[in-house]
Structure formats: structure tokens, C-alpha cells
Write a structure and sequence with these properties.
CATH superfamily: Histidine kinase-like ATPase, C-terminal domain
Keywords: Kinase, Phosphoprotein, Transferase
Largest sheet: 3 strands, antiparallel
Protein name: histidine kinase
Distance between the termini: 17 Å
Organism: Salmonella enterica (Salmonella choleraesuis)
CATH architecture: 2-Layer Sandwich
Radius of gyration: 15 Å
Number of helices: 1
EC number: 2.7.13.3
GO molecular function: protein histidine kinase activity
Strand content: 25-35%
Helix content: 10-25%
Length: about 80
């Protein structure tokens, strides 16, 4: 039916997302690391959009980063 989705949660047990960067972490060239370009999450957002899905970040304010991938299942044929 219309609006159905599959959500996949990917979490770690690290320190979580830097709170100051949360509003911009999904934008290109945003990083808290000394090395790297800061484009991984923005590329992932683009790929999910191409698949009619969504990517969002979730975490507590103190620890544990979590990425939520939401896939649309409205265009998927029934699989036996």
C-alpha cells in the first residue's frame, strides 16, 4: 500500500554525533575529523534519495550514534 516503508537502524556504541555539527552533518564537506573530506554521509543521502528513500541521524545527546535508512516498499513487487 501507499506509504509503506522499511526502516533499518545502524548504531554504534561510541560517543555519538558532535552536537554542534548535528544540523550540518548531512551536508557535503562537514567533518569533525582531521582527515577525510566529509562527503560520506552526503553521498549516502543522495543515494537514498535516488532509491526514493531517506537517511536521517539519531542519537542521544551523550552517546551512541545511529543512522536510520528508510526504504520505500510501495514500488516493490510481491516476492514469494
Amino acid at each position: 500500500t501507499q506509504g509503506e516503508a522499511l526502516e533499518v537502524y545502524i548504531a554504534d556504541n561510541g560517543p555519538g554525533w558532535p552536537v554542534a555539527l548535528l544540523p550540518s552533518l548531512l551536508k557535503p564537506f562537514t567533518t569533525s575529523k582531521a582527515v577525510g573530506l566529509g562527503i560520506g554521509l552526503s553521498i549516502s543521502v543522495s543515494l537514498m534519495a535516488q532509491m526514493k528513500g531517506d537517511l536521517r541521524l539519531a542519537s542521544t545527546l551523550t552517546r551512541n550514534a545511529c543512522v536510520v535508512l528508510q526504504f520505500s516498499v510501495t514500488d516493490v513487487d510481491d516476492v514469494e
